[in-house]
């Protein structure tokens, strides 16, 4: 019922699965749930998807960076819509799962009820539960059941009054404990301190002939460890492995083709012998790199060995060509040069063309060619000569690629025509279109072979045959009117004071272009400070308006002002407009930091806000007082129970139940006589004494909290507490919500609790007198008599 009256108190729960089991289908569950992912900037996506480049291609990286900047440059005059703000709150999520495949046309229908219907259902649930308990107790037959029912009621009150016991651990203990076993296991499996450098090789010698390869290297091992040997299955494996001139044991080959050997602790000499690999060149990998190496290889060229003896991770060995061997002369049969021409049209604020010419045939011969330019293209890269609308390039024998950049005049139509080459140089072409979203391109001609690049961006690509063409018609769509300023978060804070209120407003504003933003303050506000992104700005108040300058992007705007306050029991949020009449905001938060000398009675505002649970608790106290007043075996009437319950609202409910149960237990003690057994009588008396002492302590705690403590109004919901009231509304107009709080001075609460304490002192004198009479009825204590057994002369006994 509490969640029905105050929905904001219901804790958000994790997603619960609603499973529709399909008969005969048992595939992996499919979840009909999509998570929105915030798109990263386009440039970051393209950089993340681009392959790694070598240092030798630094110039190409700079050119690619220029392409990204050109295509993604934002028009400073464009009215880019910032869109509506999105609320950041979240409540309950329901994941719907099926055990079988789900079609695209599958529909899900949800039946939702309003908060009002939910409130009615909550009351009905509680009412039906109360009727069920009433029916099970069957109060009409209480008098007939007599003493057994009274004893059951007394035991029930004892169980409700006493604090919860500590569950004893009855599980049997075993030795040794799991902690000791885990410690012993860790000690047995502890790795050596030298790992991963338990072995190293100070030196290695390699002897290579035309038929055989012999590797000998020294290994120092700090402990018994496995060491990878030179070579692998893809390069070379030894036929014989010797450890200290003895055949080695403990060899193993892993899944990567490396050969491992178990080396005992100490200094050892490892020898590997095998046939020389076939072919003119091979590599010898060195997983365990030695500090020094010496290679004796007549007739072989060695790479990877430094002059000072240091070695790389692998050694490259290449056979030397004999002087008397004949070599073919490829000069007379050299292939004619063939090029690949790539044009990338970047249509942003400025139109540019990035051209790359790559050599497709081997290097070694110079290439001179004239590449035709597009209509309206002007080369901007230095070193590229232009004549008769063609770019004259000259590739030296060792050059394989030439790049240049050009500007392109804006024109409604771009025509690309493929040619077969120029003179004795032939080439193939690739065209790429990279157009900014501000342009609309209509394509005509040969079909596109790739519509997107590897990163998923729209970049049409063509690879034409000679004579084929493509026509690109370019238009700029008109911008659709929309908001260019979005308020993603608005936080209003009120700190009441004796003479004036201190109020502050923090806005998170996102805008696509610079400008001015107006914030309207309350009528008698006195502006104190304005900050933008944490920096104080010299901005003055113009009547009720405060004009704040904005820059493109996101920024935090903070305003602080004072407002005169008149003494009143009602605290109302200030009237603040965060924007113009047509602007809206999301994630509006209003916080009241109330004074500690105020007694909060009620709070009202948006639904997701604080709830004063005291009044619901008070309703339960009133109902309980009416019910307890009908019980005849106590001198307390309905008004007595009500006054007592009002004071006990400041302590824990368990303490209040204990005090009420104490009074009822005394009444039961007077109403019904105890059994004749002395043990049960004395145990009941001891229980009543302990219960009386606990009840006196509970009453003392209630008086202390009432006279010296803070009023426990049980304020909760949306992060609220006794002196902090917090409201949240997901979407608002241009005006912030104006919640209010009803409060009284703290001395009013103190006077009321003092009056209650005096009444309790007078009433407690009468209750204690009545309680003593109930306690002493039938005696305070019964003597325990022991039977004496006497022996008869015949061996028999009598009592």
Your description of this structure?
24% of the residues lie in helices and 34% in strands. The strands form 12 sheets. Strands 16, 17, 19, 22, 24, 25, 27 and 28 form an 8-stranded mixed β-sheet that branches. A hairpin with a 2-residue loop joins strand 24 and strand 25.
Write a compact overview of the structure shown:
The chain is α+β, with helices and mostly antiparallel strands and 799 residues long. 24% of the residues lie in helices and 34% in strands.
- Total strands: the figure is 45
In angstroms, what separates the terminal alpha carbons? 64 Å
Mean of residue pLDDT values: 79
Beta fraction of the residues?
25-35%
Estimated helix fraction: 10-25%
**Stretches where pLDDT falls below 50 for ≥5 residues?**
14-62, 142-172, 325-334
- Biggest sheet overview: 8 strands, mixed
Global outline: flat
Helix tally equals 12
Oligomer: single chain
Class per helix and strand makeup: alpha+beta
Note the topology.
Elements lengths: L1 H4 L10 E5 L9 E2 L10 H8 L8 H15 L21 E5 L16 H23 L4 H4 L1 H15 L16 H11 L10 E10 L3 E10 L3 E4 L11 E4 L2 E2 L3 E3 L5 E5 L2 E10 L5 E5 L6 E5 L3 E6 L5 E9 L18 E10 L3 E9 L7 E6 L4 E3 L5 E3 L2 E6 L5 E8 L4 E5 L3 E2 L2 E11 L4 E6 L4 E3 L5 E5 L6 E7 L9 E11 L4 E12 L3 E6 L4 E8 L2 E2 L8 E6 L2 E12 L5 E3 L12 E9 L4 E7 L6 E2 L1 H16 L8 H11 L4 H19 L6 H31 L6 E2 L7 E9 L7 E6 H31 L13 E2 L5 E2 L1
Parallel strand pairs: 1-3, 4-13, 16-25, 30-38
Antiparallel strand pairs: 2-3, 4-5, 5-11, 6-10, 7-8, 7-11, 9-10, 12-15, 14-15, 16-17, 17-22, 18-21, 19-22, 20-21, 23-29, 24-25, 25-28, 26-29, 27-28, 30-31, 31-36, 32-35, 33-34, 33-36, 37-43, 38-42, 39-43, 40-41, 44-45
């Amino acid at each position: 019922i509490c969640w029905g009256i105050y929905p904001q108190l219901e804790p958000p729960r994790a997603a619960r699965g609603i499973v529709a089991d399909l008969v005969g289908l048992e595939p992996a569950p499919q979840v009909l749930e999509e998570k929105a992912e915030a798109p990263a900037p386009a440039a970051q996506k393209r950089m993340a998807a681009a392959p790694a480049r070598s240092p030798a291609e630094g110039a190409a990286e700079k050119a690619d960076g220029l392409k990204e900047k050109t295509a993604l440059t934002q028009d400073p005059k464009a009215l880019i819509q910032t869109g509506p703000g999105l609320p950041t709150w979240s409540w309950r999520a329901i994941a719907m799962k099926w055990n079988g495949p789900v079609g695209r046309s599958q529909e899900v229908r949800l039946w939702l009820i309003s908060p009002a219907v939910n409130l009615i259902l909550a009351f009905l649930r509680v009412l039906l539960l109360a009727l069920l308990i009433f029916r099970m107790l069957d109060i009409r037959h209480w008098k007939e059941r007599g003493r057994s029912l009274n004893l059951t009621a007394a035991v029930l009150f004892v169980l409700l009054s006493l604090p919860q016991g500590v569950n004893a651990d009855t599980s049997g203990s075993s030795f040794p404990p799991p902690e000791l076993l885990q410690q012993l296991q860790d000690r047995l499996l502890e790795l050596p301190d030298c790992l991963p450098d338990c072995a190293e090789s100070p030196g290695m010698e390699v002897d290579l002939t035309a038929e055989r390869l012999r590797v000998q290297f020294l290994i120092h091992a700090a402990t018994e460890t496995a060491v990878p040997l030179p070579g692998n299955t893809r390069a070379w494996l030894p036929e014989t492995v010797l450890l200290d001139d003895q055949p080695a044991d403990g060899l193993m080959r892993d899944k990567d083709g490396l050969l491992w050997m178990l080396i005992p602790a100490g200094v050892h000499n490892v020898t590997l012998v095998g046939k020389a690999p076939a072919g003119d060149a091979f590599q010898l990998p060195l997983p365990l790199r030695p500090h020094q190496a010496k290679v004796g290889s007549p007739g072989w060229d060695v790479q990877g060995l430094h002059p000072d003896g240091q070695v790389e991770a692998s050694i490259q060995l290449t056979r030397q060509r004999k002087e008397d061997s004949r070599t073919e002369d490829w000069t007379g049969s050299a292939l004619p040069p063939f090029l690949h021409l790539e044009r990338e049209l970047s249509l942003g604020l400025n139109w540019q063309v990035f051209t790359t010419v790559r050599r497709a045939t081997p290097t070694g011969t110079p290439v001179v060619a004239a590449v035709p330019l597009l209509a309206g293209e002007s080369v901007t890269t230095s070193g590229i000569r232009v004549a008769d609308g063609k770019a004259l390039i000259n590739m030296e024998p060792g050059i394989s690629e030439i790049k240049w950049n050009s500007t392109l005049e804006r024109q409604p139509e771009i025509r690309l025509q493929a040619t077969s080459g120029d003179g004795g140089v032939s080439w193939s072409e690739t065209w790429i279109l990279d157009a900014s979203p501000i342009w609309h391109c209509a394509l005509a001609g040969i079909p596109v072979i790739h519509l997107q690049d590897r990163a998923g961006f729209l970049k049409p690509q063509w690879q034409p045959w000679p004579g084929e063409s493509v026509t690109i018609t370019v238009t700029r769509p008109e911008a659709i009117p929309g908001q260019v300023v979005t308020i993603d978060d608005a936080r209003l804070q009120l700190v009441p004071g004796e003479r004036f209120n201190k109020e502050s407003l923090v806005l998170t504003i996102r805008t696509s272009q610079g400008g001015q933003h107006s914030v309207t303050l309350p009528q008698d506000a006195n502006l104190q400070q304005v900050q933008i992104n944490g920096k104080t700005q010299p901005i003055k108040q113009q009547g009720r308006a405060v004009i704040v300058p904005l820059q493109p992007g996101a920024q935090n705007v903070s305003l602080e002002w004072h407002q005169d306050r008149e003494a009143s029991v009602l605290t109302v949020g200030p009237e603040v407009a965060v924007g113009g009449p047509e602007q809206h905001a999301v994630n509006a938060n209003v916080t009241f930091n109330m004074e500690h000398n105020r007694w909060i009675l009620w709070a009202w505002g948006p639904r997701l806000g604080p709830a004063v649970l005291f009044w619901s608790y008070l309703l339960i106290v009133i109902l309980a007082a009416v019910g307890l007043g009908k019980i005849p075996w106590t001198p307390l009437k309905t008004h007595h129970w009500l006054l007592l319950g009002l004071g006990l609202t400041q302590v824990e409910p368990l303490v209040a139940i204990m005090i009420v149960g104490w009074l009822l237990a005394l009444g039961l003690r007077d109403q019904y006589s105890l059994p004749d057994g002395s043990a049960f009588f004395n145990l009941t008396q001891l229980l009543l004494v302990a219960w009386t002492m606990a009840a006196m302590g509970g009453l003392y705690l209630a008086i202390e909290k009432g006279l010296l403590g803070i009023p426990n109004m049980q304020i909760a919901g949306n992060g609220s507490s006794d002196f902090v009231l917090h409201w949240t509304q997901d979407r608002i107009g241009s005006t912030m919500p104006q919640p209010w709080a009803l409060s009284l001075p703290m001395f009013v609460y103190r006077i009321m609790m003092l009056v209650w304490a005096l009444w309790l002192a007078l009433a407690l004198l009468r209750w204690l007198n009545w309680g003593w009479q109930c306690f002493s009825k039938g005696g305070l204590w019964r003597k325990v008599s022991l039977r004496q057994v006497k022996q008869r002369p015949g061996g028999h006994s009598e009592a």
